[in-house]
Amino acid sequence: MKARAVPLLVGLLSLAAAIALWEAASLFRLASPAFLPPPSSVARAFVELVQDGEVWRQLLRTAGLFVGAYAIACALGITVGIWMGCSEFADGLLEPLVELLRPIPKSALVPALFLFLGIGPLTMVTVVVFAAVFPVLINVYQGVRGLDPVLQDTARTFGCSRWRTIRSVVLPATLPAIFTGMKVSLSLGIVLTVLAEMLAGQSGLGFVILDTQRSFQTAQMYAWVMVLAAFGAACSLAFDRIERVAIPWHGR
Question: What is the first-listed, main subcellular location in coarse terms (predicted)?
């Protein structure tokens, strides 16, 4: 218990010190309030957003976009990763395409997607899926390729079909790799969700952050950034909890 409490206390103290320095910088005019308003002003703006319900409206839009696109990316990455890992044909067919597309900055695809899909939800979902799918796919592929061949040979010896071998042997054995890829994709997915909303959205956290920045409502802008930070932290904590339940033996 004490081992957990000490890092938490240190983290809270460092956060408090950073906020105090921020307030002092604004108080002594070390930074212009037009660009860096004091934390007290940001806190008031945050309370106002919560009171009028705007936080929940924009947060739900961002969460809906992220969760939907993230689920598609994970399902696609796991399916294709296992297929490539178990099939030499699929590996030879898809590996060149994966290696060609993987290094492309995902934001660079936005202008092309505007041409084909227009500005709207479909473009935003496509951007997030394209960004989040590769970490899952690569980790699953490497996890399957790294399995002990004896596991699959034993399953075949007992007469298991290919599908049953994948379901009962390959999938459970690659769960740590799956969750590793999903964790990397989680942060990438949030970043690209916000970016997509800035470029192609009419609502959501990314849209309102950019909108308040353009109108020089800096206190509100930082308040929205606080909401985004809280959303990201909540997603990360929820994922860690799910991972501990799904693969309790991993990391011990």
Answer: membrane
